[in-house]
Amino acid sequence: DTAVSQTPKYLVTQMGNDKSIKCEQNLGHDTMYWYKQDSKKFLKIMFSYNNKELIINETVPNRFSPKSPDKAHLNLHINSLELGDSAVYFCASSQGRMIRQAKETQYFGPGTRLLVL
Amino acid sequence: AQTVTQSQPEMSVQEAETVTLSCTYDTSESNYYLFWYKQPPSRQMILVIRQEAYKQQNATENRFSVNFQKAAKSFSLKISDSQLGDTAMYFCAFMKRYGGATNKLIFGTGTLLAVQP
Questions:
Q1: Residues in contact with B18: Cβ distance below 8 Å, sequence separation at least 6, in sequence order
Q2: Which of A6, A70, A88, B4 is the least buried, fewest Cβ under 10 Å from its Cβ?
Q3: A83 inside 8 A of chain B by CB
Q4: What single-letter DSSP state applies at residue A9?
């Protein structure tokens, strides 16, 4: 059983398009995250949600809009895709019913490789 | 702000030998966690080992152990009896303790480890 899953695994699209990446976790966790891994393999947090509430919003262009329909799902929608958005996007989750109780260990999904042409 | 530095972009080790990956970090926090994550060619981010800064005892997980030097802000990973399956990119990461869902992993730039047969 996959703990944290992402769809799609690969996404190739043209500049200017709008695309979404979906993430689901079946661990019963309350906190979910999006990280971006660039072409040099550097990983950086983008967003975190706790029980559908946005907690972390790093300096990310507002073309990126996360949405959490329920605590098991966190989707990432990207408008007007640019070449620089090409990266691997990782979803992660951790335990914690309340904001300050989120546990430290984060479990990652398999990543979505986005290529913008 | 916290920073994590991995000064070895690439390393190589013979199968069955021991290798140590270096990591240093900078923080003014006294309570935090340190992690090593492994990213094989499959791209999946896999937690290797975790260390709580308030614990003096070094963490171990089977063939993986750490040398945690809090005063020196050093957190190296030792892999004993290296196996071909250990070939991967290894990321050192820092996280403040407490803060719950505001927690974010701060990653180093990674060390690419190649295990040679």
A1: B78, B79, B80, B81, B82
A2: A70
A3: no
A4: S
- Residues A75-94 have pLDDT tens digits of 999 999 999 999 999 999 98
Q: B6-17 pLDDT, tens per residue?
A: 999 999 999 999
| Pair B52, B58: CB distance under 8 Å | no
Interface mutation vs chain B, best among A6, A11, A30, A41, most B CBs within 10 Å: A41
Helix (H, G, I), strand (E, B) or coil at A101: helix
Contact B91 A99 (CB under 8 A): no
Cα nearest neighbour of A41 on chain B: B109
Residue A26 in contact with residue A87, Cβ under 8 Å?
no
d(CA B116, CA A71): 43
pLDDT digit string, tens, across residues B61-98:
999 999 999 999 999 999 999 999 999 999 999 998 76
